[in-house]
Structure formats: structure tokens, C-alpha cells
Amino acid sequence: MKTTLKTNINKDIQWFLKELIDSRNTIDYTFGKSKKTDNNILIPIINKTNVNIPVPVYGLKNNEIVFKKWLTNIKKDTVLSFKKNEISGCHNFFPHFVTSYFTF
């Protein structure tokens, strides 16, 4: 399987092989409490297990997706920053349909 993946995918998949295939690591990301400043909304992403994999995040405004982004290299906790008028919430999807949702 590893050889087939490496041969047919033109992106670096070492994280996939290391963290999901070769180990039994638990993936556990969540949103922390948001903070509003005069112009921005700051949203912490908390990596509870230090597993470093790409994380999909969706920005919502009025219940519609306004962006989809894959965050990479989140070894520790990270803070996302958005302009107040850009989004009204965030949603993320993880393997096995574990989801988190955040509104402001």
C-alpha cells in the first residue's frame, strides 16, 4: 500500500504514513475560546495530542461556506486570525466524521 501511495500521489505524504498508518496515534484537535479585538476574531486551534497532520477548516458567514483551508504544520496550539466581517463561524472536519463547530 505504501508503495502504491508514494507512486501515485505527487505530494509529500510522510505525515500520513507516519501518523496514521505506522502508528496508533490519536488525532484530537478542537477550537478554543475565541477572542474579539476591535478589528479581528482570534480562534485558537488546540492540538491535544501533538499529532502533526493537515487540518481542514471551513469559514462560515450566514451559514454559508466562505472559504475552505487546509492548515498544515500544527504541532502545537495555533491561533487563526480573521477580520470581523469575513466570517461568523468556523467548522472543521476530521477523519471518521469527528466534527467541531464554532460560532461568534
Give the arrangement of secondary structure elements.
Layout lengths: L1 H7 L5 H8 L7 E3 L3 E2 L3 E8 L7 E7 L2 E8 L6 E6 L5 E6 L3 E6 L1
Antiparallel strand pairs: 1-3, 2-3, 3-6, 4-5, 4-7, 7-8
Describe this structure in words.
This protein is mainly beta and 104 residues long. It has one domain: Immunoglobulin-like (Sandwich), CATH 2.60.40. Helix content is 14%, strand content 44%. The protein contains two helices and eight strands. Strand 4 (55-61) and strand 5 (64-71) form a beta hairpin. The N and C termini lie far apart (43 Å). Mean pLDDT is 77; it is low at 93-99.
In short:
This protein has helices spanning 2-8, 14-21; strands at residues 29-31, 35-36, 40-47, 55-61, 64-71, 78-83, 89-94, 98-103. With 104 residues, the chain is mostly beta strands.
Largest sheet: 4 strands, antiparallel
Distance between the termini: 43 Å
CATH topology tier name: Immunoglobulin-like
Averaged pLDDT: 77
Number of strands: 8
Total tally of structural domains: 1
Low-confidence stretches: 93-99
Q: What is the count of helical runs?
A: 2
- H and E string: HHEEEEEEEE
From the helix content, strand content and strand pairing, which structural class follows?
A: mainly beta
What is the architecture at the second tier of CATH? Answer: Sandwich
